[in-house]
Amino acid sequence: KNGYKLIAKLLLLSDISTPLLFSVVRHVHHVVASFPKRVGLDLLNDGLRDQQLLLQREEEEKSHEQQQQVVADATTVLIATLAWCIKSSPAFPGKDRINDRRSDIALEILRILFALGGSDNASSANNNNRTNNPHFDLMTQMGILLGDILHLPNANVATYEVKVASVSLLMDTPINYGYYLLANDCIRTILDVLELQVSSVVLERDVSGTRSSSFGGDSKVSGSKDDAAALTPILIVLIKYGTANPEILRQMKERIFPKEECDELYQKAIDDLPPSSSVSSSSIQRGGGGGAKNMSPIDNPSKRTLRYKVIKLMTWSESNIKRLSAELMWILCNSDPTEFILRTGFGNAVHMLGMRGFVNIPEGNSSGGVGVATTAEEMLQQ
Predict the structure, then answer these.
(1) pTM of this structure
(2) What pLDDT, in 10s, does the model give residues 198-246?
(3) In this structure, which of 199, 222, 270, 316 has its CB flanked by the most CB atoms within 10 Å?
(4) CA–CA gap between residue 351 and residue 66 (Å, rounded)
(5) What is the C-alpha separation between 190 and 146, in angstroms, rounded?
(6) What does the pLDDT average to over 271-293?
(7) φ, ψ of residue 363 in degrees (nearest 5)
(8) DSSP per position, 14-61
(9) Spacing of C-alpha 101 from chain mean position
């Protein structure tokens, strides 16, 4: 228990060095991760409360005036520390990463908040009423910070790592946060991250299966687990907000299927379909594909394009990536099987068509598997 009090005391120091602060925050991460059911967080909060009350009593003795008791919990302290990391001078992340550890501190805090489910009260995430939600101001502060982080440059590896970690937190944000993302041009920056992450997985994997970093050098972990860690959060976030917000969906579609490159070919393919060729379950099973017979995407996209890379993921070996990338393309195609086949190709589309009931796939070959999430909603619930 004395250890928690010491961590709490160090967290509250105003003149702590950044290397020591990084060490303290890492200890907080270990505490949160080591105990089930938020036991570690509760112990840390107890330590913070005791330390703050002690400091207030000392201040009262010095000033001979009673102080208002305002006690901040661990999440509040962590978010305030994250804000300092991002907004303090010199400009984040600083030029000397060895001595300026703000990027490392920010990364640790984002991982702690993700482990906590976004806030001390995860059940209040969908409560947007200031009166009924005591965490409203905290959530607002965190939402603004996430927007600031998403606009950090991608060219610096330290800032990019922080951006990727912030995307994971978006899985816990309320649906209405999508309006803030739109108003602050964050959808574009999230799609930038998607392109970098997808490129890292699809185009930069060498023969041995080791995925190269977007900034050079090989990742420490190779294989499907590394791919899933890189892509699952951002695919879930885009599906979540694209499904809920038509304007976000429009921006996503224009980025992945640019009008100047895709619309003319798509319209020609639609015009060439036979009359009454909407896709039905029976027509696909008979091999007609509802008139859409293309096994590959109609525009044969260049390997440099984002749509090529996402379509490539639709037949990826890692099952969650395969399902999520297919679901992303499905909502971009307005849940229209004909458009889905034309834009992605029947060979790539067949598993999603099977999950949606348009194709009968023999049991055991659908990659559905017992106990494996098949949609973004199910993955979020898990």
Answers:
(1) 0.76
(2) 998 887 654 345 544 443 444 433 456 788 888 999 999 999 999 999 9
(3) 316
(4) 67
(5) 11
(6) 52
(7) -60, 135
(8) SS--HHHHHHHHHHHHHHHHHSGGGHHHHHHHHHHHHHHHHHHHHHHH
(9) 23
